[in-house]
Amino acid sequence: MSKSYDTYIFDLDGTLLETLEDLAGAVNYAMRKHGMPEHTLSEVRRFVGNGVRMLMVRAVPFGEKNPLFEAAFATFRAYYMEHSLDTTRPYAGIPELLAELKRSGKRTAVVSNKFYAATQSLCRHFFPDTIEVAIGEHESEGIRKKPAPDTVIEALRQLGVGKENAVYVGDSDVDIQTARNAGLPCISVLWGFRDQDFLKENGATTFVAAPQDILTL
Q1: Rounded-to-integer distance, Cα 141 and Cα 37, Å
Q2: In the structure, how many helices (H) and strands (E) does the chain have?
């Protein structure tokens, strides 16, 4: 891939932000609160990628069939909204990347399967001047979560641009599928929640090992 893009659509968790410890903390708080077994960081890493409800489906024994599932999920959500900034931080080089994209006149957005309020809050906190649009999960309004293309389409709509000269940047198989479904090329980052072999097995073709590499593709 050798091309200059005008619009960059980013995944959030595992791409721009290292959120794993705070997600795991909220999962394990809910587990303790409802008498369920806790999970290691490696286990939670495998659980993420399809939104927080699916994260908890994977974390709670027997998932949604567990009679305590909804209570545990509500506990998780409430705790995470209070503790989403405990250890979460941008990956090294991300603020500089976003600043350079802005200086170059590029358009930027975030699309995430994280619930809408958390996505908005994190982007306002960490990227108030460099991320123009942040779309979180809000299927209740008819925008399906990734890998459906809906969040990408909505981000492009809010930016007021088409998908020509746009690129999707993410760290997971869900991101590869989302880009494909939206008709965008995909850049897969190697500092996130999935390794290169896994990404290759799921169709990734373009990789970056550091944020600045995105500028030189």
Answers
A1: 34
A2: 9, 8
With beta carbons less than 8 A apart as the criterion, state whether 179 and 185 touch.
Answer: yes
Mean pLDDT of 148-169: 97
Q: How confident is the model at residue 186 (pLDDT cuts 50, 70, 90)?
A: very high
Q: Are 69 and 63 in contact (CB under 8 A)?
A: yes
Q: Which residues are paired to 169 by β-bridges? A: 10, 187
- Give which of 86, 79, 71, 82 is closest to 36, Cα–Cα: 71
**DSSP string computed for 122-186:** HHHHH-TTT--EEEEEBGGGTBPPTTSSHHHHHHHHHHT--STTEEEEESSHHHHHHHHHHT--E
Q: Are strands 89-90 and 17-18 parallel, antiparallel or unpaired?
A: antiparallel
Quote the pLDDT of residue 3: 65
145-184: buried (b, 16+ CB within 10 Å) or exposed (e) per residue?
bbbebbbbbbbbeebeeebeebbbbbbbbbbbbbbebbeb
HSE value, Cβ hemisphere, 13 Å, CA-based, for 50: 10
- Kindly report the pTM of this predicted structure: 0.94
Q: Are 188 and 199 a contacting pair, CB within 8 Å?
A: yes
Question: 209 CB contacts (<8 Å, ≥6 apart)?
Answer: 190, 191
Confidence check: pLDDT of 146 > 90? yes
The pLDDT value recorded for residue 217 is: 84
Place of tokens 């897969």: 188
pLDDT at residue 26, rounded to an integer: 98
